[in-house]
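Training component of the fellowship. As part of building independent skills, the fellow (R.M.) carried out the full modelling exercise for a liganded target. The chosen ligand was NAP. The inputs are recorded below so that the supervisory panel can assess the work.
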Amino acid sequence: MSKPVVLITGAGKRIGAEVSKELMEMGWYVLIHVNSSVDSAKEILADYTSKFGVDAPGDILQANLLIDSEVNDLISQVLQHSAVKDSGGISGLIHNASIYSSIDVEDVSIEDLQKNMKLHVETPFNLTLGLLDSLRSKNGCVIGMVDTSLGRAWKGLSHYTASKAGLRQLMINFAGDFHPDVRVNCIAPGAIISADWEVEHFAKIIEEIPLGRSGHPSNIAKAVLFLFNSPHISGQVINVDGGWSLNQ
Ligand SMILES: NC(=O)c1ccc[n+]([C@@H]2O[C@H](COP(=O)([O-])OP(=O)(O)OC[C@H]3O[C@@H](n4cnc5c(N)ncnc54)[C@H](OP(=O)(O)O)[C@@H]3O)[C@@H](O)[C@H]2O)c1
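Fellow's submitted model of the complex:
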């Protein structure tokens, strides 16, 4: 019997890698999208292929999602993929690829803003539309990875938070646009893994988290599985943040 297929962007390492592993464990065929993390994606796939001792539980697709032609090629590769054809369409799409850097608001260039908007809004828009018929044929589920910045001002991150707000609203609107065939939701991770440049700040944030610890990427993977397995949930944003949003 063919497996349900999911495409997750930016999944060669960190949170996306953990989500890919959990989905493979649960019987999904995972199209692991990467930009530069080809080697680590290959390692994950090799580990899981030998673990199951059968055919590979996924494949790796490479694209720079800031380049339109590569986004279009990715859509074609997904639609032409044998696992997608065998399954009769794609059952899951996770917009996880992201860029995250701190820039003082007065130094944010139009290029910085456009890059964030492209990766976090325009590409998810194009990818979802490009795969929509395929998602519809499987009553698929789309998830946008956002953050907990809604209604807050995060210093040095205006370009990032504005674009994640765009993604959040795009997903909510899509939930209204594509029902009843396709469900669309968001996951808002709290402090899960710090970026290299924010280690000190991250440690301070942990002190404010009611559950008293940072999250683990597997916590995000569990939320993905929950949404994939919840046929009556659409148009929601789930905070996976240890209660951090209570204190912000
Ligand atoms: N980490 C946290 O604690 C946290 C907190 C709040 C929200 N989130 C959200 O959760 C998601 C996962 O977080 P993360 O920290 O694991 O993400 P991340 O490491 O910042 O980024 C994930 C992947 O995005 C890919 N990417 C970047 N630019 C790209 C481009 N031009 N084209 C294609 N792919 C590109 C990279 O792929 P390659 O490595 O292949 O180049 C990268 O591995 C993100 O959407 C993030 O905003 C995370």
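The panel noted the following from the submitted structure. The CA atoms of residues 115 and 163 lie 9 Å apart. The pocket of NAP is lined by residues 10, 12-16, 34-37, 64-66, 96-100, 119, 145, 147, 189, 191-193 (CB under 6 Å).
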